[in-house]
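Supplementary Note 3. Input sequence used for the single-chain structure prediction.
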Amino acid sequence: METTRQQKISRLIQKELSEIFLLQTKGMHGVLISVSAVRISPDMSIARVYLSIFPSDKGEEIIKNINDNKKAIRYDLGTRVGKQLRIIPDLKFFVDDSLDYIEKIDGLLK
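The predicted structure, written as discrete structure tokens, is reproduced below.
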């Protein structure tokens, strides 16, 4: 059960990271990255970020690239929310494959 503070920080991080990824992917034609969910630990030190990537076949490659550059992403996040958060949480990125799962279930039901 997340506290109200965890929910507020999760929404703030989700909004700011989505803007960061929007700016970074403008040069990459045909790639769309959206932040589907952010789960933050109770001590506010770790944020698990779930990314929905289109096209999904490039997902693992893009997640690897993001994980290699997560220090720069955390720095960008810190410059955006530094006045609102005392400690910028460590970011861990994961692929959100729920849309692929939904499509698979729809295909099986048809």
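The first strand starts at residue 32 and ends at 40. The chain has one domain: 4-109.
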